[in-house]
Amino acid sequence: MAARKTAQCFTMLLLVWIFLQVILVSAAVSSKKRVSWIKIKEINKVGLYIGLVTVYTTEENAFFATGAFMPNPKYPFVDLSGRRFRVGTIYEKKVIYVRCGIGLNPNGTVSSSDVAEIKIGSYNVPQGDGLNMLGKIGYSNEQFFSVKEANAAEPLFWAEVNQHWLHLAASLEGMELDKCVNSSLCLTQKPMLVFGLKGSTANIFLDNAASRDFLFKTFEASTADMESSAVVMTCLSNGFPLLVIQGMSDLDQEIIRFIHLVHLLL
Ligand SMILES: *[C@@H]1O[C@H](CO)[C@@H](O)[C@H](O)[C@H]1NC(C)=O
Ligand SMILES: *[C@@H]1O[C@H](CO)[C@@H](O)[C@H](O)[C@H]1NC(C)=O
Protein backbone atom coordinates (compact mmCIF):
# COMPACT_ATOMS: atom_id res chain seq x y z
CA MET A 1 0.00 0.00 0.00
CA ALA A 2 2.82 2.36 0.98
CA ALA A 3 4.66 1.40 -2.14
CA ARG A 4 1.57 2.13 -4.18
CA LYS A 5 1.24 5.63 -2.68
CA THR A 6 4.89 6.41 -3.29
CA ALA A 7 4.62 5.32 -6.87
CA GLN A 8 1.44 7.38 -7.29
CA CYS A 9 3.27 10.54 -6.13
CA PHE A 10 6.07 9.73 -8.51
CA THR A 11 3.61 9.14 -11.35
CA MET A 12 2.02 12.54 -10.64
CA LEU A 13 5.39 14.26 -11.00
CA LEU A 14 6.06 12.39 -14.20
CA LEU A 15 2.66 13.34 -15.57
CA VAL A 16 3.40 17.02 -14.90
CA TRP A 17 6.64 16.56 -16.78
CA ILE A 18 4.84 14.86 -19.67
CA PHE A 19 2.33 17.73 -19.88
CA LEU A 20 5.22 20.20 -20.06
CA GLN A 21 6.68 18.17 -22.91
CA VAL A 22 3.32 18.17 -24.67
CA ILE A 23 3.14 21.97 -24.34
CA LEU A 24 6.63 22.28 -25.82
CA VAL A 25 5.71 20.08 -28.75
CA SER A 26 2.47 22.02 -29.18
CA ALA A 27 4.53 25.11 -29.94
CA ALA A 28 5.36 23.52 -33.26
CA VAL A 29 1.74 23.39 -34.48
CA SER A 30 1.60 23.29 -38.25
CA SER A 31 0.00 26.04 -40.27
CA LYS A 32 -2.68 23.56 -41.41
CA LYS A 33 -3.79 23.16 -37.81
CA ARG A 34 -3.73 26.93 -37.28
CA VAL A 35 -6.16 27.30 -40.18
CA SER A 36 -8.42 24.71 -38.47
CA TRP A 37 -8.31 26.65 -35.20
CA ILE A 38 -9.27 29.91 -36.93
CA LYS A 39 -12.17 28.09 -38.61
CA ILE A 40 -13.27 26.59 -35.29
CA LYS A 41 -13.28 30.03 -33.68
CA GLU A 42 -15.47 31.38 -36.45
CA ILE A 43 -17.84 28.39 -36.23
CA ASN A 44 -18.08 28.71 -32.45
CA LYS A 45 -19.07 32.37 -32.73
CA VAL A 46 -22.47 31.29 -34.03
CA GLY A 47 -22.89 28.23 -31.72
CA LEU A 48 -24.33 26.41 -29.77
CA TYR A 49 -24.66 23.24 -31.85
CA ILE A 50 -26.24 19.87 -31.28
CA GLY A 51 -23.52 17.20 -31.43
CA LEU A 52 -24.31 14.14 -33.52
CA VAL A 53 -21.96 11.13 -33.54
CA THR A 54 -22.11 7.91 -35.54
CA VAL A 55 -19.80 4.90 -35.32
CA TYR A 56 -20.04 2.87 -38.53
CA THR A 57 -19.90 3.95 -42.18
CA THR A 58 -23.24 2.18 -42.75
CA GLU A 59 -24.81 4.45 -40.12
CA GLU A 60 -23.16 7.46 -41.70
CA ASN A 61 -24.37 6.53 -45.18
CA ALA A 62 -27.92 6.03 -43.89
CA PHE A 63 -27.77 9.41 -42.16
CA PHE A 64 -26.60 11.25 -45.29
CA ALA A 65 -29.10 9.36 -47.45
CA THR A 66 -31.96 11.03 -45.54
CA GLY A 67 -30.84 14.36 -47.02
CA ALA A 68 -31.79 16.07 -43.75
CA PHE A 69 -28.32 17.45 -43.11
CA MET A 70 -27.69 20.80 -44.82
CA PRO A 71 -23.98 21.75 -44.80
CA ASN A 72 -22.97 25.23 -43.72
CA PRO A 73 -22.21 27.07 -47.00
CA LYS A 74 -19.16 28.91 -45.58
CA TYR A 75 -17.68 26.25 -43.28
CA PRO A 76 -19.05 22.84 -44.33
CA PHE A 77 -16.45 20.95 -42.28
CA VAL A 78 -13.34 21.08 -40.12
CA ASP A 79 -10.71 18.32 -40.20
CA LEU A 80 -9.35 17.69 -36.74
CA SER A 81 -7.72 14.68 -35.04
CA GLY A 82 -8.06 12.72 -38.28
CA ARG A 83 -11.81 13.15 -38.24
CA ARG A 84 -14.07 15.29 -40.39
CA PHE A 85 -16.43 17.38 -38.24
CA ARG A 86 -19.28 18.50 -40.49
CA VAL A 87 -21.06 21.74 -39.69
CA GLY A 88 -24.61 22.34 -40.80
CA THR A 89 -28.26 22.17 -39.90
CA ILE A 90 -30.97 19.55 -39.55
CA TYR A 91 -34.45 21.08 -39.86
CA GLU A 92 -32.87 24.47 -39.11
CA LYS A 93 -31.25 23.29 -35.88
CA LYS A 94 -27.49 23.84 -35.83
CA VAL A 95 -25.62 20.55 -35.80
CA ILE A 96 -22.00 19.38 -35.79
CA TYR A 97 -21.73 15.84 -37.02
CA VAL A 98 -18.77 13.43 -36.78
CA ARG A 99 -18.15 9.71 -37.27
CA CYS A 100 -15.99 8.60 -34.38
CA GLY A 101 -15.05 5.11 -35.55
CA ILE A 102 -14.96 1.83 -33.72
CA GLY A 103 -12.73 1.50 -30.71
CA LEU A 104 -13.43 -1.44 -28.52
CA ASN A 105 -15.58 -4.10 -30.18
CA PRO A 106 -18.94 -2.70 -29.07
CA ASN A 107 -20.88 -5.96 -28.82
CA GLY A 108 -18.25 -7.90 -26.96
CA THR A 109 -18.10 -10.74 -29.45
CA VAL A 110 -14.96 -12.57 -30.51
CA SER A 111 -14.55 -12.11 -34.23
CA SER A 112 -12.42 -13.66 -36.94
CA SER A 113 -10.42 -10.43 -37.16
CA ASP A 114 -9.01 -10.98 -33.67
CA VAL A 115 -5.23 -10.88 -33.45
CA ALA A 116 -5.26 -13.25 -30.47
CA GLU A 117 -7.66 -14.74 -27.97
CA ILE A 118 -7.33 -15.73 -24.34
CA LYS A 119 -9.47 -18.77 -23.49
CA ILE A 120 -10.61 -18.47 -19.89
CA GLY A 121 -11.03 -22.25 -19.72
CA SER A 122 -7.30 -22.73 -20.33
CA TYR A 123 -6.59 -21.15 -16.98
CA ASN A 124 -9.58 -21.85 -14.82
CA VAL A 125 -11.27 -25.24 -15.04
CA PRO A 126 -14.11 -25.80 -12.61
CA GLN A 127 -14.47 -29.10 -10.79
CA GLY A 128 -17.03 -31.59 -12.13
CA ASP A 129 -17.27 -31.78 -15.89
CA GLY A 130 -14.53 -29.16 -16.18
CA LEU A 131 -16.40 -26.90 -18.59
CA ASN A 132 -15.72 -23.20 -18.17
CA MET A 133 -18.58 -21.23 -19.68
CA LEU A 134 -16.76 -17.88 -19.57
CA GLY A 135 -15.54 -18.30 -23.14
CA LYS A 136 -12.72 -16.11 -24.39
CA ILE A 137 -11.48 -12.57 -24.69
CA GLY A 138 -10.44 -11.42 -28.16
CA TYR A 139 -7.77 -8.84 -28.93
CA SER A 140 -8.26 -6.96 -32.17
CA ASN A 141 -7.03 -3.86 -33.96
CA GLU A 142 -8.20 -0.39 -33.04
CA GLN A 143 -9.32 2.08 -35.68
CA PHE A 144 -6.78 4.82 -35.89
CA PHE A 145 -7.57 8.18 -37.45
CA SER A 146 -4.63 10.36 -38.36
CA VAL A 147 -3.84 13.79 -39.72
CA LYS A 148 -2.72 12.15 -42.98
CA GLU A 149 -6.26 11.93 -44.33
CA ALA A 150 -9.51 12.84 -42.61
CA ASN A 151 -11.97 10.03 -41.87
CA ALA A 152 -9.74 7.26 -43.29
CA ALA A 153 -9.30 4.86 -40.37
CA GLU A 154 -6.31 2.54 -40.38
CA PRO A 155 -6.03 -0.60 -38.26
CA LEU A 156 -3.69 -0.10 -35.32
CA PHE A 157 -2.44 -2.66 -32.84
CA TRP A 158 0.95 -1.24 -31.80
CA ALA A 159 1.64 2.48 -31.98
CA GLU A 160 4.86 3.26 -33.81
CA VAL A 161 7.91 4.42 -31.96
CA ASN A 162 9.38 7.80 -32.78
CA GLN A 163 13.14 7.22 -33.02
CA HIS A 164 14.13 10.61 -31.63
CA TRP A 165 12.01 10.17 -28.52
CA LEU A 166 13.08 6.56 -28.16
CA HIS A 167 16.68 7.76 -28.06
CA LEU A 168 15.74 10.28 -25.36
CA ALA A 169 14.00 7.52 -23.40
CA ALA A 170 17.07 5.30 -23.66
CA SER A 171 19.23 8.03 -22.17
CA LEU A 172 17.03 8.12 -19.07
CA GLU A 173 17.74 4.49 -18.16
CA GLY A 174 19.83 4.19 -15.05
CA MET A 175 18.36 7.39 -13.61
CA GLU A 176 18.47 7.34 -9.81
CA LEU A 177 14.98 7.06 -8.35
CA ASP A 178 14.16 7.69 -4.72
CA LYS A 179 13.10 4.72 -2.70
CA CYS A 180 11.51 6.82 0.05
CA VAL A 181 9.03 9.67 0.13
CA ASN A 182 10.16 10.49 3.66
CA SER A 183 11.73 8.74 6.65
CA SER A 184 8.72 6.52 7.24
CA LEU A 185 7.34 5.82 3.75
CA CYS A 186 9.56 3.69 1.52
CA LEU A 187 9.21 1.14 -1.28
CA THR A 188 10.20 -2.42 -0.41
CA GLN A 189 12.60 -2.50 -3.35
CA LYS A 190 14.71 0.12 -5.01
CA PRO A 191 12.68 1.49 -7.95
CA MET A 192 14.27 1.37 -11.36
CA LEU A 193 13.65 2.91 -14.72
CA VAL A 194 13.32 0.42 -17.54
CA PHE A 195 13.05 1.22 -21.21
CA GLY A 196 12.58 -0.79 -24.36
CA LEU A 197 9.69 -3.05 -23.36
CA LYS A 198 6.20 -3.02 -24.75
CA GLY A 199 3.50 -1.18 -22.87
CA SER A 200 -0.14 -2.08 -23.27
CA THR A 201 -3.48 -0.71 -22.18
CA ALA A 202 -6.37 -2.76 -20.86
CA ASN A 203 -9.99 -1.78 -20.39
CA ILE A 204 -10.26 -4.02 -17.35
CA PHE A 205 -8.19 -4.06 -14.16
CA LEU A 206 -5.68 -6.84 -14.75
CA ASP A 207 -5.17 -8.08 -11.22
CA ASN A 208 -4.87 -11.58 -12.59
CA ALA A 209 -1.66 -13.53 -13.13
CA ALA A 210 -3.05 -15.67 -15.99
CA SER A 211 -4.04 -12.60 -18.01
CA ARG A 212 -0.67 -11.00 -17.43
CA ASP A 213 1.15 -14.19 -18.43
CA PHE A 214 -0.95 -14.39 -21.58
CA LEU A 215 -0.14 -10.79 -22.50
CA PHE A 216 3.56 -11.35 -21.92
CA LYS A 217 3.74 -14.63 -23.85
CA THR A 218 1.48 -13.58 -26.72
CA PHE A 219 2.40 -9.94 -27.25
CA GLU A 220 5.58 -9.53 -25.19
CA ALA A 221 3.66 -6.85 -23.31
CA SER A 222 5.62 -6.08 -20.18
CA THR A 223 3.10 -3.78 -18.57
CA ALA A 224 -0.58 -2.99 -18.72
CA ASP A 225 -2.18 0.26 -17.68
CA MET A 226 -5.67 1.61 -18.19
CA GLU A 227 -5.01 4.95 -19.86
CA SER A 228 -1.90 5.29 -22.04
CA SER A 229 -3.41 4.15 -25.32
CA ALA A 230 -6.07 6.89 -25.16
CA VAL A 231 -3.36 9.53 -24.72
CA VAL A 232 -1.13 7.90 -27.35
CA MET A 233 -3.90 7.67 -29.95
CA THR A 234 -5.10 11.23 -29.28
CA CYS A 235 -1.57 12.62 -29.65
CA LEU A 236 -0.78 10.60 -32.76
CA SER A 237 -4.16 11.44 -34.31
CA ASN A 238 -3.17 15.08 -34.01
CA GLY A 239 0.37 14.57 -35.28
CA PHE A 240 2.20 15.03 -31.95
CA PRO A 241 4.96 12.62 -30.94
CA LEU A 242 4.86 11.71 -27.27
CA LEU A 243 6.66 9.91 -24.52
CA VAL A 244 4.67 7.92 -21.97
CA ILE A 245 6.34 7.29 -18.64
CA GLN A 246 4.41 4.82 -16.53
CA GLY A 247 4.92 4.36 -12.83
CA MET A 248 4.13 0.67 -12.22
CA SER A 249 2.90 0.08 -8.75
CA ASP A 250 -0.30 -1.94 -8.54
CA LEU A 251 0.99 -5.41 -7.96
CA ASP A 252 2.89 -7.10 -5.21
CA GLN A 253 6.09 -9.05 -5.66
CA GLU A 254 4.27 -11.99 -7.22
CA ILE A 255 5.46 -11.29 -10.73
CA ILE A 256 8.74 -9.49 -10.69
CA ARG A 257 8.57 -8.06 -14.19
CA PHE A 258 5.42 -6.12 -13.34
CA ILE A 259 6.56 -4.35 -10.24
CA HIS A 260 8.37 -1.15 -9.59
CA LEU A 261 9.07 -0.60 -13.23
CA VAL A 262 8.93 2.85 -14.59
CA HIS A 263 8.09 2.06 -18.14
CA LEU A 264 8.72 4.13 -21.19
CA LEU A 265 6.96 3.79 -24.48
CA LEU A 266 6.50 6.01 -27.43
C1 LIG B 1 -21.09 -7.80 -33.48
O1 LIG B 1 -21.65 -9.10 -33.48
C2 LIG B 1 -22.03 -9.60 -34.74
C3 LIG B 1 -22.54 -11.03 -34.54
O2 LIG B 1 -23.46 -11.10 -33.51
C4 LIG B 1 -20.89 -9.60 -35.72
O3 LIG B 1 -21.35 -9.98 -37.01
C5 LIG B 1 -20.29 -8.20 -35.80
O4 LIG B 1 -19.15 -8.23 -36.65
C6 LIG B 1 -19.89 -7.73 -34.42
N1 LIG B 1 -19.36 -6.38 -34.49
C7 LIG B 1 -18.07 -6.15 -34.38
C8 LIG B 1 -17.69 -4.71 -34.47
O5 LIG B 1 -17.27 -7.04 -34.18
C1 LIG C 1 5.40 10.53 5.00
O1 LIG C 1 4.52 10.75 3.91
C2 LIG C 1 3.24 10.22 4.10
C3 LIG C 1 2.47 10.43 2.80
O2 LIG C 1 2.54 11.74 2.35
C4 LIG C 1 2.58 10.86 5.31
O3 LIG C 1 1.31 10.29 5.50
C5 LIG C 1 3.44 10.64 6.52
O4 LIG C 1 2.90 11.30 7.61
C6 LIG C 1 4.85 11.13 6.27
N1 LIG C 1 5.72 10.78 7.39
C7 LIG C 1 6.61 11.62 7.90
C8 LIG C 1 7.43 11.10 9.02
O5 LIG C 1 6.73 12.77 7.51
From TrEMBL:
Keyword Signal listed? The answer is yes
Q: Which InterPro entries match?
A: Nucleoside_phosphorylase_d, Nucleoside_phosphorylase_sf
SUPFAM superfamilies this protein is in?
Purine and uridine phosphorylases (SSF53167)
Q: Does the keyword Signal apply?
A: yes
Ranges for the Nucleoside phosphorylase domain?
Answer: 154-254
Pfam annotation, one family:
PNP_UDP_1
Q: Which GO terms describe its biological process?
A: nucleoside metabolic process
Signal sequence: where?
1-27
GO MF entries: catalytic activity
> Which keywords are on file for this protein?
Signal
Which Gene3D superfamilies does the record associate with it? Nucleoside phosphorylase domain (3.40.50.1580)
Highest taxon, organism lineage: Eukaryota
Q: Which PANTHER family match?
A: PHOSPHORYLASE SUPERFAMILY PROTEIN, PURINE NUCLEOSIDE PHOSPHORYLASE
**What protein name does the entry list?**
Nucleoside phosphorylase domain-containing protein
Q: Which organism is it from?
A: Jatropha curcas
